[in-house]
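lol so apparently i was supposed to do this last week
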Amino acid sequence: MAPLIDPFQRPISYLRVSVTDRCDFRCTYCMAEHMQFLPKKDLLTLEELDRLCSTFIRLGVEKLRITGGEPLVRRDILTFFQSMSRHLKSGALRELTLTTNGSQLARFAGDLAAAGVRRVNVSLDTLDPKKFADITRWGRLPQVLEGIEAATEAGLKVKINAVALKGFNEDELFPLLDWCAAKGHDLTFIEVMPMGEMGEEMRLDQYWPLKDLRTRLAERFTLTDLTERTGGPARYVRIGETGQKVGFITPLTHNFCESCNRVRVTCTGELFMCLGQEDKADLRAPLRASADDAALEQAIRAAIALKPKGHDFDYSRQHVAGQMSRHMSHTGG
Ligand code: SAM
Ligand code: SF4
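anyway here it is w/ iron/sulfur cluster bound
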């Protein structure tokens, strides 16, 4: 079967699937406090998600990341992971992983590990309980720390993702780094992206370019750029003094589109060919039109043929360009 190759000769081997738009947190940079969630009937069922992911895997996807909203609040989501593990066993899928806020990990870590998950990304922007409650609005830090602990005990490799926020966690750069080093977690920083309904002024206020963060790191440590990539958008440095690996996801200061190998599917079956563009294709209609996967496959191929070259996010002229009205929880960051 011909693999999925986009018009810019990029093979599509990485699929990120948002399995729900719901979440038990309301992070200020991600969601509004009062969110209108999708009607349940619009969501793909777990069986439909299975067919969809299995079709992508047949077409050459080797890495599957489950995200949301918060993936672990979707009812019966464990059965989906258990079902996907057959593709790990067959060798078609190289990695099954998830991005989570960690709130439900204490409950799920053991079963996820048993289903073949080896690594998990946990989002954690601060180690201060009060600040954590402020930024997530509804979250509690101890619950997340317990979840991370449980994941480690279950043998999962934990990577911490922290959104770099000016005036919020700038002062926690070194504490976060030290904590991750002590716990054996990798750490990746993410630049805040202009998604959702937040006003332009607030976006610019929050924006802490990772270039600046890196400069601050370099004042204390020796940084060596690593050439390795993990199939995702992060670039890594090694900290000479501690041996730690630190990642940077810089959609705004560094355009990473040229090596983009991924596409995203929302919980309603919309295929977004680029996180930063509105182009999308509906996969739910072909999924529901027939039990046969031929129409679905055709729709996927047609969409990949339209994958744009890159996004247009840009803060450089002191305004936010390329802003997306979609919330991050919709396409699953
Ligand atoms: N709920 C899960 C979590 O928080 O990890 C998975 C979904 S969440 C949308 C995925 C990632 O997107 C998180 O690491 C979150 O910090 C990040 N994110 C959300 N809104 C963002 C924004 N406006 N800019 C950059 N990253 C964002
Ligand atoms: Fe929920 Fe994750 Fe968005 Fe926070 S970043 S509101 S945890 S989906």
